[in-house]
Amino acid sequence: VLTAHPTQALRRSILHKIHAIGMCLLELHRDDLTPFEQEQERDKMKSYLTALWRTDEARRSPPTPEDEARGVLNVLEETCWNAVPLYMRMIDASLHKIGQPSLPLTSHPFVFGSWAGGDRDGNPYVTSTVTTKVVALNRYRAAALYLQEIEQLMFELSLHYGSPELCKYNEEHVKEFGKRSLKFKEFWNRVPPTEPYRLLFSYLRDRMSATREYAESVMDENNLLADAPPSEMVFSKTEEFLEPLLLAYRSLKEMGDAYVADDKLLNLIRRVQAFGLSLVKLDIRQEADRHTEAMNCITEYIGDGSYSAMSEEQRMAYLTSILKSRRPFIPKDMPADENVKAVLDTFKVVAKIGQEFLGAYIISMCMKPSDVLLVEVFQREFTGSKPKTLRVVPLLETIDALQNSNVTLGTLWSHEWYRTHLKERWNNRQEVMIGYSDSGKDGGRVTSVWELFKAQERMAKLATENGITLSFFHGRGGTVGRGGGPQHLAILSQPPDTINGRLRVTIQGEVIQQDFGLPGLAIKALESYATAVLKADLINKATVEPQWREIMEEMSRISCEKYREVVHNNPLFVKYFRYATPELELGLLNIGSRPQKRREGGVETLRAIPWIFAWTQTRLHLPVWLGLGDAIKATFDAGKGEILQEMYKSWPFCRSFFDLICTVLATADKNVSEQYDKHLVPDEFKPFGNQLRERLQETIDYSLKVIQQAGLLDNSRVEKRAIEARRQYLIPMNIVQIDCLQRKRKGDASTELETALIISMKAIAAGMQATG
Predict the structure, then answer these.
(1) Phi, psi at residue 432, to the nearest 5°?
(2) Most exposed: 174, 575, 594, 762, by fewest CB within 10 Å?
(3) Which of 122, 144, 104, 360 lies closest to 246, judged by CA?
(4) Cα separations in angstroms, 159 against 166, 292, 406
(5) Which of 359, 337, 332, 362 is nearest to 348 (CA)?
(6) How far is 655 from 649, CA to CA, in rounded Å?
(7) What does the pLDDT read at residue 5?
(8) Residue 313, φ and ψ in degrees, nearest 5
(9) DSSP state, residue 592
């Protein structure tokens, strides 16, 4: 699931040129180019380099949600569109080597989703109109890509015979539309009736053209057809497009033309399975409190009192009575403020668009079972009796929410209406999203990962007891502090019985380019995900010893106490944070449409991305390690150090945790952090900064004791060399940033200084290969 989280510091214009330069370099590595062709590639690369050098690196205005959606679509079109069928052919080849058949035509190992244009949690710019336009944009871009594939197949499938099934289909369907436009673009003649495949694909071409035109009309506010229902020519379900393709495939196979069937037609079928009619399924996300606010407005208007004042038991009973009732609940003439109207308009649009082009409805900051039932109430209100509702996914993202996960899910799964709904609508399948970012900001990295591990274990066990098929949606960020890191390693470190052949995960910001920026990278990313999911199910999991759990529990407790002691309870911390980091200046980057904060306040109101981004810039990386050194020290002091060392060697979860932490610690630099304090922090806060750097060094020392190495990343020389190579370029950028921050905070408001500050932030983010 590609998200619109603002962690990509580079502009799309720059990314495009970097991608083009990368493709030129790949071409120049070919050994079959003539001298003339080599020279042409070099000239092309010089052109892109010149344009890159002359392009403004600073984004002068924030992107709109529509811009973010286009960025997601660009990645899919440039690499994933070709990578998916190619990688599936690689899987087929591997299966053939061991005497197994190819993947079934109906298989779709990868399905792509997006949050761009659907994630309205804290983003007032994502409106119901924006969501409608983004879905139309997704459909338009998909139709344009499919039209190219259809045109190619029309040209190539010139066979003048087909199966009786194909001929019958053409008689029943193609002739009905044939009078409208059975022209073949390549020849600009009418398609001969003796060429059944061209007849079929001309019919598909007409329908896909109508689909593209309809999507274009929805995007155009001034088009009179924008609100009109689509005609019968428009594809509204993936099956409508897929059925004739499968028919053509069967026909070719039956007539002995398997080589033709398994070429471009097979690629198209697999693309349709992966991308559907809209390239991505758009998830909708909203904060639970916004739903409560809307419901409170309704209950007060209809005379049922304050919904917000109800206890959890009262809310559950009230919502259940509404769900069991068949009557409409929301008065049509009800007055509402902008916030409430935005929530209700979202459900209205979701009902209109339908599940073909949408994914899940995700409830962020979901804390109680009533938060889930309330969304079901709103969905039912606008969809009526038709089964068009989206699957509702609670997002558990704080320490408290994770610890109470079994209470939340257990209450829902024992609820008569919800259990019946889950069985009839979703075949007893439940998806739960777990958040790595806010849990880390809430209690520190150690507590976050351990509570996530335990919560998944508990929920998986409870699901088995209740006959529920549970799947987890991992809300990982790009950096280690937000659950990021190598996905292969992360997947293999999950608790037993929590993958079950299915994995859903967010890919954000700079990670999208790292995973899918070039065709080769896209193939590698797909392979990494597929291999890890297979290994998670096929390879025996390490047994987690009871004393290992005891040690992790104690480390989590100590780490959380020390973390909160500094971040949440120390009155100096927030002021020091804003002096010592560029947190207040990060908004100048304009890297996302979403505001940095949910509301005004301290660290607790700050979003996880700027929280991590700010510390990454100063090279202190405080959210990743704070509290860990204290926890390890306590473990060694208690005489359990050797057991912790054994945990690192034998337990994938523990090994993954320390390997990722050590990678971040290797990029930390106390001297750089000290320079920020020296020039930006008032004298009364400097001792506090010195204490933090002492704790950083203590964490490094104790981490090395656990992994039993002399230096960080000694077991990963390539990564260590890459970090050292970038370090010499990063330090000057940090010095420039410190100078810019100092001058800006003294009142220099010049555009040149602001530009220099923005470029320094982008440069450090690029060198660290991480933002937030």
Answers:
(1) -130, 130
(2) 575
(3) 104
(4) 13, 61, 60
(5) 332
(6) 7
(7) 53
(8) -65, -40
(9) -
Nearest to 433 by CA among 392, 474, 482, 483: 474
Which 3 state secondary structure label does DSSP give 472? strand
Q: What burial letters (b/e) apply to 494-513, b meaning 16+ CB within 10 Å?
A: bbebbbeeebbebbbbbbbb
From 5, 108, 205, 504, the catalytic residue: 5
Q: What pLDDT does residue 327 have?
A: 82
Handedness of CA 465, 468, 469, 470 (dihedral sign): negative
Query: To which residue do tokens 């069991």 refer?
Result: 324
Residue whose structure tokens are 């777990």: 434
Q: Quick one: pLDDT at residue 481?
A: 47
202-229: pLDDT as tens digits:
899 999 999 999 999 998 876 655 566 7
**Dist. CA 237–CA 416, nearest whole Å:** 32
- Amino acid letter for position 42: R
392-428 b/e (C-beta count within 10 Å ≥ 16 → b): bbbbbbbbebbebbbebbbbbbebebbbebbeeeeeb
* Rg of the chain taking only CA atoms, in angstroms: 28
pLDDT at position 246 is 95
Q: Alpha helices, DSSP H only, in 500-651?
A: 509-516, 519-538, 546-567, 573-580, 608-617, 622-625, 628-637, 641-650
Strand partners, 396: 434
The identity of residue 6, as a single letter, is P
Name residue 183's beta-bridge partners: 190
Token couple for 671:
């001297």
Please state, in angstroms and rounded to a whole number, the distance separating the CA atoms of residues 651 and 643. 11
Q: Is 441 a residue of the active site?
A: yes
Spatial distance between the Cα atoms of 191 and 435, rounded to a whole number of angstroms = 55
The residue among 700, 548, 542, 695 whose CA lies nearest residue 635 is 548
Q: Which residues contact 531 (CB under 8 A, 6 or more apart)?
A: 488
Q: What is the pLDDT of residue 300?
A: 93
Q: What is the pLDDT of residue 484?
A: 52
| Residue 482 is among the residues annotated as catalytic for this protein | yes
First to last CA, the chain: 17
Task: Round to whole Å and give the CA distance between 257 and 354.
Answer: 38
Q: 369, 371, 467, 450: which is closest to 403 by C-alpha?
A: 450
Which residue in 139, 380, 441, 762 is the catalytic one?
441
- Per-position b or e across 353-377, b if 16+ CB within 10 A of its CB: bbebbbbbbbbbbbbbbbbbbbbbb
Torsion over CA: 415, 419, 420, 425 (sign): positive
Other beta carbons within 10 angstroms of residue 554's beta carbon come to 15
Looking at 139, 482, 594, 619, which residue is catalytic?
482
pLDDT at 543: 82
- pLDDT for 182 equals 44
Asked if residue 446 lies in contact with residue 559, where contact means CB atoms within 8 angstroms, the answer is yes
Spatial separation of the C-alpha atoms in residues 358 and 114, rounded to whole Å: 9
Q: Please give the structure tokens belonging to residue 294.
A: 């809307």
| Nearest-angstrom CA–CA distance, 152 and 59 | 39
Task: Specify the pTM.
Answer: 0.87
Collect the ranges in the chain with pLDDT lower than 50.
6-7, 181-184, 187, 481-482, 596-597, 599, 771-772
413, 481, 369: which is closest to 771 by C-alpha? 481
- Name the strand (E) or helix (H) holding 504: strand 504-505
Check residue 602 and give its pLDDT: 56
Which ranges of 185-237 would DSSP assign to H, the alpha helix? 196-219
Helix ranges, 354-404 (H): 369-383, 399-403
